[in-house]
């Protein structure tokens, strides 16, 4: 397939937040997991902004114990090494920031109102999952030493496994992508990651980009279950926590977990 990506090569990425000289983008024909690849590079002192992109993964994974379906020649599987001077308390926000970058990338191909973020780490088109984010990191004291931001992005239509066929979607199912689809999507995605990581790392920019996440969040205004917690999702806190209004009137803040959505309700409780 001529998709415009130089599998098996290493190139430089001209992204301003990555520092100078430009960081590497490594293209692999196959790998176990791009997150694992970037972790090894991180421990070998690779520069911030190093990117690994694979044509297929044999051990791709999502949050928890979930595997990420990674067939060859269809989609984008990539991980970015993030080395920013931020406090450990800001680290959990990176998954939301990366989700916003993917959503903005999708905006180049479909109407923005069709693209939503599902807290904490999924992106949807027409209520079906088009991408997932997995952020893993290392702390040094109260600071983030580095983070690995992985993205699995369904670009081209494919035959889905039966267990996800009703929940998955590819960008190519809803947009005319033309030739070099993955190369075009990757270019837009890296540019959006550049922009949103700048905003995430800057405390002054946190309100603006988080407000955009809130406005695009499919989870807010719905009755949800997250682990042992159940309630109306009313807001995303400034630290990334999902605020739930329980039937008792109590507020619960949840920082991670798989969300099960039950129904939609009007936001009459002050949510953004």
Distance between the termini: 44 Å
Rounded radius of gyration (Å)? 18 Å
H-E string: EEHEEHEEEEHHEEEEE
* CATH fold assignment of the largest domain: BirA Bifunctional Protein, domain 2
Oligomer: single chain
CATH class of the largest domain: Alpha Beta
Could you say which overall geometry the principal axes of the C-alpha atoms support?
Answer: globular
Structural class by sheet pairing and helices: alpha+beta
Question: What's the architecture of the largest domain in CATH terms?
Answer: 2-Layer Sandwich
Helicity, as a percent range: 10-25%
Biggest sheet, spatial arrangement of strands: 1-2-3-4-8-7-6-5
User: Which homologous superfamily in CATH is the superfamily of the largest domain?
Assistant: Bira Bifunctional Protein, Domain 2
User: How many structural domains does the protein architecture include?
Assistant: 2
Number of distinct beta strands: 13
Q: Count the helices. How many?
A: 4
Strand content: 25-35%
Mean pLDDT: 88
Biggest pleated-sheet summary: 8 strands, mixed
Instruction: List segments where confidence is low: pLDDT < 50 over at least 5 consecutive residues.
Output: 266-272
